Amino acid sequence: MNEALTIKDQIKKLIELQKLDADIYALKRDLRQKPEYLTSLKQDFENKKANLILHEEQYKSLLIAHKTLEGDLKTQDEAVAKANSQLSLLKTNKEYTAKLTEIEHIKADKSLIEEKLILSYDTLDAAKAAVEKEKGVVAQEEKKYLAEKKIVEDSVAVLEDKVKVLTSQRSMIVPSVPKISLSRYERVLEHTDGLAIVAVANGVCGGCYMNVPAQVANQIKMSKELVFCETCARIIYLEDDL
Ligand SMILES: [Zn+2]
């Protein structure tokens, strides 16, 4: 509807748009990074949980081994009692001596089991302490994750609001820019990290800092059409010229 707008006026409008678009671009980049940050926090939390499970499993298998030793000890006790009760029934000295030897063997086995059990108590205690410690770590990590999650969600809401406000400001400028210029500007914007229109200062493009040849600068001065940087393809203008 404003096809009659001069090139200089179009550039002024595009500069206004660019100010908003730069902010929108930065906000959207922040918005993209927020979930990534949350995902990495969640991963930390999950890793801590996995570590706790590992410790719990280790404790369980140690406990099973411990119970087995206790069972073995009981078996040996019963064997000693049984052998002792058999002593009085034996008729000959030879049988009696043999039974005594058997009892000594059982007792020797038993004392080996008892030594293992003593070590097992220590190992179990250490494993139990490690589980408790990891539980504390997980609880701490969960608290941290949930607190950070809340902060991130709140800041996402704030950023989204800002984008909405800027987008609505943008939509008030857009209708005054001729469609062809607007679509060129937006195409460049998409490919240049949110910076589509830049001033040439001291003969250098403000986007890529490469020299702008004299004939291109002259083209800008003629104000007949939008002029693009030959290196970075951004729309270029001369600040003094506006
Ligand atoms: Zn450039």
SSE order and pairing:
Elements: H1 7-87, H2 93-173, H3 179-191, E1 197-201, E2 204-205, H4 214-222, E3 227-228, E4 235-238
Parallel strand pairs: 1-4
Antiparallel strand pairs: 1-2, 3-4
Helix pairs in contact: 1-2
The gist of it:
This protein has 242 residues and is mainly alpha-helical.
Description:
It contains four helices and four strands. The protein is mainly alpha-helical and 242 residues long. It has a domain of 150 residues: Helix Hairpins (Orthogonal Bundle), CATH 1.10.287.1490. The longest helix is centred in the N-terminal third of the chain and has 81 residues. The chain starts with 6 loop residues before the first helix and ends with a strand. The mean pLDDT is 95. Bound molecules: zinc ion (ZN). Zinc ion binds next to loops.
Overview features:
4-stranded mixed sheet; 242 residues; 4 helices; binds zinc ion; Helix Hairpins; mainly alpha
CATH architecture term of one domain: Orthogonal Bundle
Strand content: 5-15%
Order of helical and strand elements: HHHEEHEE
Q: Class of one domain, according to the CATH hierarchy? A: Mainly Alpha
Our count of helices gives 4
Give the strand order of the largest sheet, numbering strands 1, 2, ... along the chain: 2-1-4-3
Low-confidence segments, given as residue ranges, are none
Helix content: over 70%
Major beta-sheet overview: 4 strands, mixed
State the shape: rod-shaped
Q: Structural class of the secondary elements?
A: mainly alpha
What is the terminal separation in angstroms?
Answer: 22 Å
Task: Give me the Rg, rounded.
Answer: 41 Å
Each distinct ligand: zinc ion
CATH fold topology of one domain? Helix Hairpins
